[in-house]
Amino acid sequence: MNALTSRLDTWLGRFTMYRLIFWVLLVLVVYSMVLNALGWLTFGLPEMVVHLLLCLGVTYVSNRLLGLVFGLRPHSESSLITGLLLYFLFWPSLATTDMAGVALACVMASVSKYALAFRGRHIFNPAAAGAFITGLTGLNIATWWAATPAMLWLLLPGVALVLHRTRKKLMALVFLVVATSIISTELVSRGMTLGQGLWQPLAQRPLLFFAGFMLVEPLTLPPRRWQQLGLAAVVGIVFAVPYNLGVVANSPELALLFGNLLAFLMGQRGRVQLIFRGSRALTPATTEFTFEPARPVRFSPGQFMELNLPHSGFDGKGRRRVFSISSAPDAPEITFGVGTTEPLSPAKRALSALRPGDSISATAVGGDFLLPRDAAKPVLLIAAGIGITPFLSHLASNHSGRDIVLLYLAPGREELAGVEQLRASGAKVIARLADGSTPPEFMVDAGTARIDSTRLAELVPDIRDRAVYVSGSPANVLALRATARTAGAAQVHVDSFAGY
Q1: Which residue has the higher pLDDT, 313 or 9?
Q2: Distance between CA atoms of 5 and 8, rounded to whole angstroms?
Q3: What CA–CA distance (Å, rounded) separates 50 from 455?
Q4: What whole-number distance in Å separates Cα of residue 304 and Cα of residue 365?
Q5: What distance, in Å, lies between the first and last C-alpha atoms of the chain?
Q6: How far apart are CA 360 and CA 122, in angstroms?
Q7: CA nearest neighbour of 123 among 111, 135, 133, 137
Q8: Sign of the CA dihedral 436, 440, 441, 446?
Q9: What does the DSSP assignment read for 260-300?
Q10: pLDDT tens per residue across span 353-400
């Protein structure tokens, strides 16, 4: 099972979240047309094709034009995803009024990215904003027709794939449990059986589509996991509880917009300009990039930052990349340790091509790879290769003198990054160097043997008393987490983020 998960993670790692959602939605579009041809849907194929072209065309063109008006480079992939979402939100129709309403929703979705934004970052989910505004005009109303039993055969695996890639399965589960419980209770009270009361909200209401493609949209989420889980519960309540305030009534789009507003108030608000100051080689395969933020950035040791790296090359991953921060929160500059082995991706080439004084934008800060609040709690940090990056931030911020053991796995001595920072941290550092080279004198030499559970327990006899943190590639994290648990670790935290 671990091997299968590792292979899935490796394959999914080739795509950003945006690219994955785009392809999943596109597959669902094709599937919906196949269902229509088989008679499972009754829109009419011409209506569906025209509806698709209208959603994609108007959203794409309006986004490009608004980018010119506001002097910003539009994110074409994002606009196409918005168009595909609106395809599933509005009923396919060739009626003039209906098509005008869909076109308005597409334009308003694009407008929301620029007009309803703060410091370059949009506040509301564009598709939900466009649907809500259009509903107020009376031209058209979102029906969320993707909530059809026949669509479940591909919708369910598609949503599962997206949630696995984005690491938001628990957030979606909280939303689904809260919303389904409320809706099912109401349906059972009206005379449905329990089975019918559970089936109806999942198969005939847009809970799954909402959770997989709308709720977890990255730019409208709060930065911390506990905030995301709380938000999911609140949105689930607003989604499921019926109400009518005269001007507005409960709808999926209104529930999401309410959640977006709460998330905006919780997190780092808006885009931050980062001025490039320089770079230096940490190892032959790793480079540290240093930036000065144009305004203070709130983050905690172990968190990551999303950087917008415009480039002309195409690698299927878009312009945004997520990197762990290696500097301390009280440092005047922000640093990132980045793997820079050849061949470099187009985005990393763009990063490497920066010159002092150039600026890029950071669009999000987040992550929960944080040490325990109790400074008396001892910890074990296990870093595999580039996984040392977030631990450098942890160690640079260890002003309380916490008991820290770091197990550092690297190919050889020259591949040890941040040696001077590690020396100055006061932490006990254990190095396992695969090539048999001798680590620096302040490190404990763990030899060249593979670190299995028995060897780990020998190196860290009190592992049961320590909170364990593992960072590295997905495959290494998966293996080392299992090793730590077998060795007796009660708590194992892993560094994982979407990488969109």
Answers
A1: 9
A2: 5
A3: 63
A4: 6
A5: 25
A6: 17
A7: 111
A8: negative
A9: HHHHHHHS--S-EEEEEEEEEEEETTEEEEEEEESS-----
A10: 999 999 998 877 888 899 999 999 999 999 998 899 999 999 999 888
Pair type for strands 404-410 and 428-433: parallel
Peptide bond into 474 cis (omega under 30): no
Q: Rg of the Cα trace of the chain?
A: 25
Between helix 45-70 and helix 76-89 the angle, nearest 10°, is: 140
Q: Give the whole-angstrom CA distance, residue 405 versus residue 371.
A: 13
DSSP 8-state symbol, 304: E
Q: Provide the residue count of the chain.
A: 500
SS3 state at 495? coil
Question: What is the identity of the amino acid at 180?
Answer: T
Q: Residue 146 and residue 208: Cα distance in Å, rounded?
A: 9
- Give buried/exposed letters for 401-425 (b at 16+ CB in 10 A, else e): ebbbbbbbbbeebebbbbbebbeeb
Record the tokens describing residue 372, joined without a space: 């325990």
Return the residue matching tokens 């910003």. Answer: 72
Check: CB of residue 366 under 8 Å from CB of residue 304.
yes
CB 336 within 8 A of CB 276: no
Q: What is the pTM of this model?
A: 0.78
Q: Does the structure show a pLDDT above 50 at 497?
A: no
Tokens (6 digits) for 339: 């793997």
CB 334 within 8 A of CB 294: no
**Residue holding tokens 């598709």?**
127
Task: Give how far the C-alpha of residue 131 lies from the chain's centroid of Cα atoms, to the nearest Å.
Answer: 24
- 117, containing H or E segment: strand 117-118
For residue 356, the tally of other CB atoms under 10 A from its CB is: 10
